[in-house]
C-alpha cells in the first residue's frame, strides 16, 4: 500500500475499481477520509456511490485497487474492518416479524458491544417505547429509518457508514439527527455519508467527494468548493454604470438594464468589492454560493443518472440480500 495517504485516515482507497461484466461501476477511486470528520459522498443515481459502499463493507471484491477501513483491508481483513464500524442497513432489509426492541437487541448482540447510546438516540429520533413493542411490519418508512439509524449508532462505533441516512425523516427529526452526528464527530468519531440532500450535506459535512460515471471528479472542503464556484451578483448604481466595471479582474457582465447590472464572478470577490467601494452604489446583492449550485455545475445536463453505473439492473435486490447478510458479518469476530 502507498505511504502517500494519511496514517490517521479512517478510510483510504487507492485505485479502487469495480466492474460488473462490461459495466465499469467504479474506476480508480482515490480517497482519504480523515478521522473525526463528517465526510459527504455525493453523486446522482448510478454514479458509483452504492458500489463504493459495498466495497468498503467488504460485500464485493474489488476488480482492482484496494480499500482500508480503520487500518484494515476491507476485503482481506473484513471482519476486523467491521469490528469498530456502524453501518446503516436498508430499512427494507430489517426483519418485519421482529419487534423494534428485539431488532435493536439483535443488532447490539452482533456488534458485541453494549448499546450505550440507545436511549439518547431514541429520544433524539422520537421513537417511543410503545413503538418499540410493535412488530416492524406495522412501521411506517420513517419509523423503520429511525430504528435502522439507532441500530447502526447505538454501540458508539468509531466509524459510521451511512447511505441516505435521513431518507423518510421529517425536517425536525432530520435536524435532531444532524446534531447527533455533530456530537459524535466532536468526540472523535468519523461519519462517511452518502446523501441526495445537498442542504443537509452543506450543514453537516466538512469535506465532500463528488463522483460521476464511476469516477471521482472533485474532492474538497465545503469552503474550498464554494471558493471555486462562479458566483453571481447584482449591483444598482446611482446613475450610469461606471465604465471601469468591465476592467475588474474575473468579473463579467451578463445583464444590463439602466442603472442595474448583473455580474458573474469567477473566484475571489475582493477585486469587485474594492472597485465598488469607490463608486456610488445604491444596492448590492451578492448571495453566498450554495452546494446545490456547485453540484449542478459538475453535472451539466445530468445524463449520468440515465445509465446505471452501479451494476446490473436487478442488482438492487441483490444488494438488499447482501446487506441483510452483512448485518451478521458486522458482528463476527
TrEMBL record:
The keyword Ribonucleoprotein does not apply. Residues 301-333 are annotated as: Disordered. Keywords: ATP-binding, Nucleotide-binding, Transport. Gene3D superfamilies: P-loop containing nucleotide triphosphate hydrolases. GO terms for molecular function: ATP binding; ATP hydrolysis activity. PROSITE patterns: ABC_TRANSPORTER_2. InterPro entries: AAA+_ATPase, ABC_transporter-like_ATP-bd, P-loop_NTPase. Residues 11-238 form the ABC transporter domain. Residues 304-333 have a biased composition (Basic and acidic residues). It comes from the Bacteria. It holds the Pfam family ABC_tran. The keyword Nucleotide-binding applies. Belongs to the ABC transporter superfamily. This is Efflux ABC transporter, ATP-binding protein. It comes from uncultured Thermomicrobiales bacterium.
Amino acid at each position: 500500500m502507498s505511504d502517500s495517504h494519511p496514517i490517521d485516515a479512517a478510510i483510504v482507497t487507492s485505485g479502487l475499481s469495480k466492474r460488473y461484466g462490461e459495466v465499469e461501476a467504479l474506476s480508480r477511486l482515490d480517497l482519504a477520509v480523515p478521522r473525526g470528520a463528517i465526510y459527504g459522498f455525493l453523486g446522482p443515481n448510478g454514479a458509483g456511490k452504492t458500489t463504493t459502499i459495498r466495497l468498503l463493507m467488504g460485500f464485493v471484491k474489488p476488480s482492482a485497487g484496494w480499500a482500508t477501513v480503520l487500518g484494515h483491508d476491507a476485503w482481506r481483513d473484513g471482519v476486523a474492518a467491521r469490528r469498530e464500524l456502524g453501518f446503516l442497513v436498508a430499512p427494507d432489509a430489517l426483519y418485519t416479524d421482529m419487534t423494534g426492541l428485539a431488532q435493536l437487541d439483535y443488532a447490539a448482540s452482533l456488534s458485541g458491544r453494549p448499546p450505550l447510546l440507545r436511549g439518547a438516540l431514541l429520544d433524539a429520533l422520537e421513537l417511543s417505547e410503545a413503538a418499540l413493542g410493535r412488530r416492524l411490519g406495522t412501521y411506517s418508512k420513517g419509523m423503520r429509518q429511525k430504528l435502522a439509524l439507532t441500530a447502526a449508532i447505538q454501540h458508539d462505533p468509531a466509524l459510521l457508514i451511512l447511505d441516505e441516512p435521513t431518507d423518510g425523516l421529517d425536517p425536525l427529526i432530520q435536524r435532531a439527527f444532524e446534531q447527533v452526528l455533530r456530537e459524535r464527530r466532536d468526540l472523535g468519531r468519523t461519519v462517511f455519508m452518502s446523501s441526495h440532500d445537498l442542504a443537509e450535506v452543506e450543514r453537516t459535512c466538512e469535506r465532500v467527494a463528488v463522483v460521476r460515471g464511476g469516477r471521482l471528479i472533485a474532492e474538497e472542503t465545503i469552503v474550498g468548493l464554494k471558493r471555486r464556484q462562479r458566483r453571481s451578483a447584482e449591483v444598482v448604481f446611482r446613475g450610469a454604470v461606471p465604465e471601469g466595471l468591465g476592467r475588474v479582474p474575473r468579473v463579467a457582465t451578463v445583464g444590463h438594464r439602466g442603472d442595474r447590472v448583473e455580474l458573474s464572478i469567477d473566484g475571489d470577490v475582493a477585486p469587485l468589492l474594492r472597485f465598488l467601494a469607490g463608486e456610488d452604489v445604491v444596492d448590492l446583492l451578492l448571495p453566498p454560493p450554495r452546494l446545490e449550485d456547485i453540484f449542478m455545475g459538475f453535472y451539466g445536463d445530468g445524463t449520468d443518472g440515465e445509465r446505471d453505473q452501479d451494476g446490473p439492473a436487478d442488482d438492487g435486490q441483490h444488494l438488499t440480500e447482501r446487506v441483510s447478510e452483512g448485518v451478521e458479518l458486522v458482528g463476527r469476530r
